[in-house]
Input
Amino acid sequence: MNRLQQYGGRMIETDGRPTIELVDPNDNAQQRFQYRRSGDGIERRVLAHDGRAMRDGSPWERMTASEVFAMVQIRGQYHPILDPLGL
Output
């Protein structure tokens, strides 16, 4: 099992771009969170547990610089979003 799978994630492709898909084990709704690179930042969207779009259409939203910085601060040896995306 690779490291991303150990964190409950997998690498998929959306619109021809590598995308990380994670399920938060603490989320009772078991929503799927997707992350992909966008220029020098990260975009994310939330899908229902079955992979379908949420009622709002699950648009891709660019993460703020402070959100990305917070991920970098807790990086440690491996980060299941940053490392697979090459950040």
Remarks:
- The chain is about 15% helix and 35% strand.
- The chain has a mean pLDDT of 86.
- The first helix runs from residue 3 to 6.
